[in-house]
Specification:
By secondary structure, the protein is an alpha/beta fold. It has helices spanning about 15-25, 65-75, 105-115, 120-130, 135-140, 150-155, 165, 175-180, 190-205, 210-225, 235-245, 290-295, 300-310, 330-335, 395-415, 430-435, 480-495; strands at about 1-10, 30, 45, 50-55, 60, 80-85, 85-90, 95-100, 225-230, 250, 255-265, 265-270, 275-285, 315-325, 345-350, 360-370, 380-385, 420-430, 470. About 35% of the residues lie in helices and about 20% in strands.
Length: about 500
């Protein structure tokens, strides 16, 4: 039996962040990862010689004062090789192709061109989005523990409140759809379709169900800074792992945690090989979906209600296509005219109007140039899908082929030049995410918000019994690499009983 200060289960962005920060403070930390790769749903893998990104994800938070900029500074890491994107992404919609610009004036000019009848209202709406940058800075700097569970945690929020933050309180009972109606905008217009595409990729739902505060923060993230990272997000995961091991941390790959049990002086985690690891603190970066399975018959009474509540919550999975391109493939040629100023590796494709933005009718496309050693660049296509039908094995292969054909047809329709450059096409389903990432039923991306007050239905990182924590996309602040990493930072600070880094006063 081996004893540590902290056991971290899962090397996704939440687990890597928590482990790295604690190791930098002198804690003896072991990080157990079920697969042979880092980064979880935002990591990478190799197949047929190609380097793929597991998920299609925009790089954000590396601008001065941004979340990852602060994390890198706190850990003493050099910034990765970045390309700041003036054009965040291009959205190929049914009737038009929209360039989503970071710069406010350029974006408003694009709205004048694309949505002339609503351009003034859209500008007013984005004034509110821009103002939400204050909320983002608050989250990044002060890292509030939310939602509060008990008087002590409510009291911990009081010192962070100020009149400027309290002005956002009315939005706690509204959705993004409510805010659109305030400005005379409709979810069913072309602009509404565009906006719902952005919300689906960032917060897993559309405007009518998205809590206003959550949606506004997600939208303002794009305009704070979007980046292409050399090597993609897997390079960020590698950097966090390197600083973790340099500080004395231990990583064990292909070591899934199969069960956990509360003990008198901490927690015991048992690996697939039967190894018994003990620590006063146990951090799970495995997802809330798996909590009941890990606890088995040993569910502490304080967790029964939590486990039952989790089973009632809806969550997406993803269907992904991994495309290996020919060595001479050039993004500018495949996706249309571009130059150094307007180049972006991200595209979003939206199919038929009036249909849900999921199940292959909407997907994000991410380009990765892996550099020397790879046969060529790669594309990752990702769409939301309901996980349950994928576990009907009788129709599994037909369903997989149908989704692949649907997404490729849409991709080739909007960007015909891609077709002749494809060398390898590999599908990934919820079954794939379950098998390789240990995500129960392949659920990824956290929970689906169900309305204005669903922000208060989120789980926070403290699971109840002393020393048990959850980080990642199924706890506050939710989906995306930035949110998952931020949950890891919050947990690390509460384990250590002190703040790391800096914030403005």
């Amino acid at each position: 039996m081996e004893t540590y200060d902290v056991i971290v289960a899962g090397a996704g962005f939440g687990g890597l962040t928590c482990a790295s920060l604690l190791a930098s403070q002198g804690y003896r930390v072991i990080l157990c990862e079920a697969s042979g790769e880092l980064g979880g749903s935002a990591g990478g893998f190799q197949r047929e010689g190609y380097q793929f990104a597991a998920g299609a994800t925009v790089g954000m938070g590396f601008e001065p004062g941004g979340y990852f900029n602060r994390l890198y500074g706190t850990l003493g890491l050099e910034s990765p090789n970045l390309h700041s994107l003036e054009r965040i992404m291009q959205i190929a919609m049914p009737e038009q192709t929209v360039d989503y610009w970071r710069n406010r004036k350029r974006w408003h000019a694009e709205c004048e061109r694309q949505f002339p009848g609503e351009a003034r209202q859209i500008a007013d709406f984005y004034d509110e989005v821009e103002a939400a940058g204050e909320l983002l800075r608050y989250m990044t700097e002060r890292r509030p523990f939310f939602p509060p569970a008990g008087l002590r945690e409510w009291a911990s929020l009081v010192p962070h409140l100020n009149p400027r933050m309290l002005r956002w309180a009315p939005l706690l009972t509204q959705t993004v759809g409510d805010r659109l109606r305030k400005y005379g905008l409709s979810e069913h217009s072309p602009f509404g379709t565009f906006l719902n595409g952005q919300l689906m990729d960032s917060v897993q739902t559309t405007a009518s169900r998205c809590p206003a505060l959550l949606g506004l923060i997600a939208l303002t993230v794009f305009h704070q800074g979007a980046f292409a990272i050399q090597g993609g997000l897997p390079a960020v995961a590698e950097a966090l792992a390197e600083t973790f091991t340099a500080a004395g941390g231990e990583i064990r790959y292909r070591t899934p945690i199969r069960s956990i049990e509360r003990q008198s002086e901490g927690w015991q985690a048992v690996t697939k090989r039967g190894e018994q690891l003990t620590a006063k603190q146990l951090v799970l970066n495995t997802s809330m979906h798996s909590l009941g399975d890990l606890l088995g018959e040993h569910v502490p009474s304080r967790l029964h209600k939590l486990v039952e509540a989790e089973r009632q919550r809806a969550a997406w999975s993803a269907f992904t296509l991994y495309i290996g391109l020919q060595p001479d493939s050039d993004m500018c040629k495949l996706f249309g005219p571009s130059d150094a100023e307007t180049w972006t590796p991200f595209r979003q494709v939206i199919g038929a109007s009036g249909l849900p933005l999921s199940e292959g009718n909407q997907f994000l496309v991410s380009w990765l140039d892996a550099g020397p050693g790879s046969p060529g660049p790669t594309l990752t296509l990702s769409t939301h899908t309901v996980p349950e039908p994928w576990w009907d094995r009788t129709g599994y292969e037909q369903r997989k082929l149908a989704y692949q054909d649907k997404m490729l047809a849409l991709l080739y329709e909007r960007y015909p030049a891609v077709r002749e450059h494809c060398s390898v096409v590999l599908p990934g389903t919820p079954v794939t995410f379950h098998r390789y990432l240990g995500r129960r039923q392949g659920r990824v991306g956290g929970y689906i918000p169900q309305g204005a007050r669903s922000l208060f239905d989120a789980f926070n990182s403290r699971l109840g019994p002393d020393g048990l924590w959850m980080v990642g996309d199924t706890v506050f602040p939710g989906a995306g690499t930035l949110g998952a990493s931020l949950s890891g930072w919050m947990a690390a600070e509460r384990i250590a009983g002190k703040r790391f880094g800096y914030y403005s006063r």
